[in-house]
Amino acid sequence: MSKTREIDREDGVMHTPPIVPRQAWEAARERLLVKEKAHTRAGDALAAERRRMPWMEVEKDYRFEGPEGTGSLADLFEGRRQLIVYRAFFEPGVFGWPDNACRGCSFVADQVAHLAHLHARDTTLAYVSRAPQADIARLKARMGWTMPWYTLTDSFDADFGVDLWHGHNVFIRAGERIFRTYFINVRGDEALGTTWQFLDATPLGRQESWEDSPEGYPQTPPYTWWNWHDRYEPQASPDPAWVAVSDAGVASFRAETGEQP
Q: Any alpha helices (H) in 111-239, and if so which ranges?
């Protein structure tokens, strides 16, 4: 039997859902879990479709100012295969200038997970704005942000739909050629920040063997490539001890639920 649904607050009474005993709560949670799992699987299917999006070749020579001088779009990859570029609004005319970047863009920046995990999947995240490098360096130092952040010098923002609103553009590099593979902004943009959300937006995805990806895409077993963010080494093989632990965990989960974690 449910109890009172009113909880007193300093500013009035809050009308809550039913207050129930443990068994009823567990049953409600199981009913909701069915929908949540369907939501997760639908997200996996969308990511699989995203990996099959057509590519658009980038033909203009865009230039950016960085801490070490002028560079090209190719330089923003930092030698990696994939690139995610976020257009942050930090420049004259933006609310908060010159002390702060846009509140929304700053909120997004605060959510970014440690970049080492993206790098381990051959992916670079970079920010771009119209502010001069001196101002960007000052802002990053004060806010504790570590992502590479470049100054726009040409029509990159207008050409890629981020001249009036923030957004993430995704690129992949094949030799000397660069292709735009995806673009996300508005409500879709606000959720980005975890390593998984960023990788799901890329053409190669998480690069794990359970994913539905086109033939020939790079993939490794899930979990085994994970590492502490200060322990990744280029081209290093997964730690055999960690592989054994993660494989045992997957096997236990499958035995209990019959599903992939």
A: 115-119, 133-143, 156-159, 186-190, 195-200
Neighbours of 37 (CB within 10 A): 11
The tens digit of pLDDT for each residue in 213-238 reads 999 999 999 999 999 999 999 888 88
Element (H, E) at 129: strand 123-129
Q: What would the CATH number be for the domain defined by 56-200? A: 3.40.30.10
pLDDT for res 7: 59
Minimum mean pLDDT among 127-141, 153-167, 201-215, 225-239: which range?
A: 225-239
Asked if residues 193 and 102 have their Cβ atoms less than 8 Å apart, the reply is: no
**Measured distance CA(216)–CA(219) in Å, rounded:** 9
Amino acid at 160: F
Can you state the percent helix, strand and coil of the chain, rounding each to 5?
Answer: 35, 20, 45
Q: What is the pTM of this model?
A: 0.92
Measure the CA–CA gap between 237 and 177, rounded to whole angstroms: 29
At residue 8, does pLDDT exceed 60? no
**Domain extents for the chain?**
56-200, 221-261
Structure confidence at residue 10 (pLDDT): 61
| Rounded-to-integer distance, Cα 131 and Cα 142, Å | 16
Q: How far apart are CA 14 and CA 9, in angstroms?
A: 7
Residue 226 in 3-state DSSP?
coil
Q: What tokens appear for 86 in the block?
A: 């976020």
Measured CA to CA, the distance from residue 6 to residue 18 in angstroms comes to 9
pLDDT bin (cut points 50, 70, 90) of residue 1 is: very low
Structure tokens at 136: 């960007």
Specify the DSSP class assigned to residue 3: B
